[in-house]
Amino acid sequence: MNTNQEISEKYLRSILKNKNEISHEYFNKLELRTDASINQNSEINKLLDRKLTKSSVLIPIVFDDGNYSIILTYRSADLKDHASQISFPGGRIDAQDASPVHTAIRETYEEVGIEEKYIEIIGNLDTYVTGTGYQILPIISLISQQHKTKINSNEVESIFKLPLSFLMDASNHQVDRKHYNNGSITYDYNFNVINYNSHYIWGATASILINLYERLK
User: Fold this and answer.
1) Is pLDDT larger for residue 93 or for residue 27?
2) Which of 20, 60, 161, 212 is 20 to 30 A from 126 in CA distance terms?
């Protein structure tokens, strides 16, 4: 699709809908993506050899003010991992979670107060491996316009909406470079960046958004 083409619910469903049950087995069979994917094969192999923490996030797509947008959060500055960064609602999978979908829905309610009855799961993207040792399964959802939010200040500072039309304009996608150092693993890597107004979206969140863009374009 081009950036001027109207994004409809029918189009989103036709491209993103997954008829298969999203289970824990997805971590074993889906394509892996990493935030160190350019010319770093040996370092990535070292990373994948480590025991990865399985987690899932929700990609909440909502129709609001005549446009589709994605709800994103600013993580609390007091959190141990990825403080003050932009992310999707979600987190690590607990032993009692029936599936990655259950984790994403539970974490979304805990973080931003969106109730399960307002969340319709339609599919998922590729699993994503971070340099900090997390393997993330992004769960795609449509959020009812009747939803309400209630921010948990212990985990989230604020939320904002990224217009889907902004994401679908490839000129808004950028690449930056950082140095990664975690014990015996050290390398320079390129990573995706999306600048929306004053919001600097990077790392896993930006890469997952680019994956969504690739599915929809």
Assistant:
1) 93
2) 161
CATH classification number, 9-216, choose in 3.40.50.1970, 3.40.50.740, 3.20.20.80, 3.90.79.10: 3.90.79.10
pLDDT in tens, 18-34: 877 788 887 775 556 66
Distance in angstroms (rounded) separating the CA atoms of residues 209 and 194? 9
State residue 5's pLDDT score. 44
Domain ranges of the chain: 9-216
CA 98 from centre of chain: 20
Q: Round to whole Å and give the CA distance between 204 and 199.
A: 15
**Alpha-carbon distance 150 to 26, whole Å?**
30
Residue type, 27: F
Distance CA 192, CA 179 (A): 14
Q: Which of 130, 118, 15 is nearest to 64 (CA)?
A: 118
This prediction has a pTM of 0.85
> What average pLDDT does range 169-193 have in this prediction?
83
Q: How many whole angstroms separate alpha carbon 68 and alpha carbon 48?
A: 35
